[in-house]
Design brief:
With 650 residues, the chain is α/β, with parallel strands linked by helices. 52% of the residues lie in helices and 7% in strands. The protein has 2 domains: 285 residues, Collagenase (Catalytic Domain), CATH 3.40.390; 199 residues, Neutral endopeptidase , domain2 (Neutral endopeptidase, domain 2). The strands form 3 sheets. The protein has a 4-stranded mixed β-sheet with strand order 2-3-5-4. It has a 3-stranded mixed β-sheet with strand order 6-8-7, with helices on one face.
């Protein structure tokens, strides 16, 4: 008799820790006790194991393209240009000398905006973010979204809170060193002016919690309204310099109106020395990964070591792979899918998705806190979910992109222009619902509310998340919970504001929305008191992470229901001494196996809408009755939570 493998990594267990006290350490404690984060990483774990596997596979693909023509040849040429360190060293900072001179020649706000528009066209600059997605009030049309930017630190809080004072001082020192390496005069004075201006810019930023609100960040304006919102910002000059057609601004969404009004005010009271220094800093910092080794290392010393605690920069070939992934990703993806994604994986995933959707259907239908009217709307949205699995149905065309194996910075500029023009061409064109925002070789997944779609690239469909040879319990606790999580984003605190077509549309009764908010607030309060073991002086931000926490809660509970559906009334076998229900929760915990440096953890808690992995493993299960039953959790156990405090939303 051939027994199905459990899909559980037994060697990583800590048997001295009980599952009912700490499932994360029970399942991963042995690994944590013996694992050292490699010097070139801020964190490591299951996700990075899969990333590293995909990275090596992509490297092999890239190296095989170096003698090819067409799209594959462009991949090889870009790789070669990044690895040509002799030429890069010989050029020094000369590739950005012209841009630095243009910045130095700025005398007023009109000059500044003209230079900014030109620089942004080639991938430098960055006063605000520009993205193009479906209009969230009319998902059949694309529209430009403008968002806040202009900062060198991860978040506006870094510029005002005392706990970040040392990082601000380190940034000041870093900017000065970079100016010196670039050969600019008055490096110290310029650095001080950059930090002073960025502090002013940060003061008009929205905070992280406010900035994730789908309603508050949807502010649709006409061109004339945009000019009224930001008086003093010469949009005509900016568009003309960046070679952007005027029709792009006929209608836009301004995510943070206060930011653009504040920036316009700073430009009206134009402090030339500050803005020139800031512009030169943007040029140097933006180009730093592609310049000589001294600049590369100084850039890493701050952003890698100071902010993330990473001692050593990644090998150059790995950085070259990342560049290609971000610029010619689908050209590599076409080959990756042929070599590393069997059709059986897609078929199995499609079956999993069907069961997950059915589990959501049953759960929504039987909710005791929601009215029939809202249930009907929720089920309509569920029926309109679009799953994308593995790879896109059509691939991006890179034929218009020119790559020169001897011109790295030129390649970067051309890639930026090509990518920007690809996005701008969407304005006025039909929405392409086949487009993917991740490559097949990306170890991740996402939910896109504007298209009501869940997307699972090929590279995430690997053990321990998904294993064709493993028992269903492990697959449902792994990839099944991830599928459930992404579907759950359609019903989290922000995703639930969108209807099945991807439009912001309030389909809730006031009573049901109030009850949803009450349950969400209870979840916020649960996470607000969680203290990371590696940073015991701070707590999780429950309001910032609530969307992801709702996704985890709904995803895991629905994945468990889907697992029961898959059993079709039969009893799961005991494998490796664990019941099917136990293996399901163990698979969930092992999916979050990870280690992180304290510096990186602090940055993530300040800016990342995801909770730390130890809490993603341990906190959600405290709300699920099935976990208590699977491991006989009693009142005396550390993971026990009184039933009246357990949160159930979906």
């Amino acid at each position: 008799m051939c027994l199905m493998k459990s899909g559980i990594e037994l060697a990583y267990f800590d048997r001295t820790t009980r599952a009912a006290d700490d499932l994360f350490h029970h399942v991963n404690g042995g690994w944590l006790a013996n694992f050292t984060i490699p010097e070139d990483r801020a964190s490591d774990g299951v996700g990075y194991e899969l990333f590293e596997r995909a990275e090596a596979q992509v490297r092999s693909i890239i190296e095989n393209t170096m003698q090819m023509d067409g799209e594959p040849g462009k991949v090889g040429a870009l790789y070669k240009s990044f690895l040509d360190t002799d030429r890069i060293e010989s050029l020094g900072v000369s590739p950005i000398a012209t841009d630095l001179a243009k910045a130095q020649a700025v005398h007023n706000s009109k000059d500044f905006l003209a230079t900014l528009g030109e620089l942004e066209m080639h991938g430098l600059g960055g006063l605000f973010s520009t993205s193009i997605y479906t209009d969230h009030m009319n998902s059949n049309e694309n529209i430009v979204y403008f968002g806040q930017g202009g900062l060198s630190l991860p978040d506006e809080a870094y510029y005002r809170e005392e706990e970040y004072a040392e990082i601000r001082a380190a940034l000041l020192e870093h900017i000065e060193k970079m100016f010196l390496l670039a050969g600019l005069a008055d490096a110290s004075g310029k650095a001080g002016r950059v930090l002073a201006l960025e502090t002013q810019i940060a003061a008009v930023h929205w905070d992280q919690v406010k900035d994730r609100d789908a309603t508050l960040t949807y502010n649709k304006v006409t061109r004339s309204q945009l000019e009224q919102l930001a008086p003093g910002f010469d949009w005509s000059t900016y568009l003309r310099a960046g070679q952007i057609a005027a029709h792009v601004l006929e209608s836009t969404v301004v995510r943070e109106p206060d930011f653009f009004t504040g920036i316009a005010h700073l430009l009206t009271e134009f402090d030339c020395e500050k803005w020139v220094a800031w512009l030169q800093w943007q040029i140097i910092s933006g180009a730093a990964p592609y310049l000589n080794e001294a600049i590369v290392q100084q850039n890493f010393a701050f952003y890698g070591t100071t902010l993330s605690g990473t001692p050593k920069i990644r090998a150059r070939w790995k950085r070259a792979v990342s560049l290609i992934e971000g610029s010619l990703g689908e050209a590599v993806g076409r080959i990756y899918v042929k070599e590393h994604f069997p059709p059986e994986s897609k078929s199995a995933m499609q079956k999993l998705v069907v069961n997950l959707v059915e589990a959501y259907r049953e759960s929504i239908t039987n909710l005791d806190w929601m009215s029939e009217l809202t249930k009907t709307k929720a089920l309509e949205k569920l029926d309109q979910f679009m799953p994308k699995i593995g790879y896109p149905d059509k691939w991006r065309d890179y034929s218009a992109l020119e790559i020169d194996a001897s011109d790295l910075m030129g390649n970067i500029a051309r890639i930026s222009r090509f990518s920007r023009d690809f996005e701008l061409a969407k304005i006025g064109a039909p929405v392409d619902r086949t487009e993917w925002y991740m490559t097949p070789q990306t170890v991740n997944a996402y939910y896109n509310p504007g298209m009501n779609e869940i997307v699972f690239p090929a590279a995430i469909l690997q053990p321990p998340f998904f294993d064709l040879e493993a028992d269903d319990a492990a697959n449902y606790g792994g990839i099944g919970a991830i599928i459930g999580h992404e579907i759950g984003h359609g019903f989290d605190d922000q995703g639930s504001k969108y209807d099945g077509l991807g439009n912001l549309n309030d389909w809730w009764t006031p009573t049901d929305r109030a009850e949803f908010d009450k349950r969400s607030q209870a979840l916020i309060e649960q996470y607000n008191v969680l203290v990371p073991s590696q940073a015991p002086d701070i707590t999780v931000n429950g309001a910032l992470t609530v969307g992801e926490n709702i996704g985890d809660l709904g995803g895991l509970s629905i994945a468990f229901k889907a697992y029961l559906i898959s059993l079709n009334g039969t009893t799961a076998p005991v494998i490796d001494s664990f019941t099917g229900e136990q293996r399901f929760f163990i698979a969930w915990a092992q999916a979050w196996r990870s280690a992180i440096r304290p510096e990186a953890l602090r940055r993530e808690i300040a800016t990342d809408p995801h909770s730390p992995h130890e809490f993603r493993a341990n906190q959600v299960i405290r709300n699920l009755d099935a976990f208590y039953e699977a491991f006989d959790v009693q009142e005396s156990d550390r993971l026990f939570m009184p039933e009246k405090l357990r949160v159930r939303i979906w």
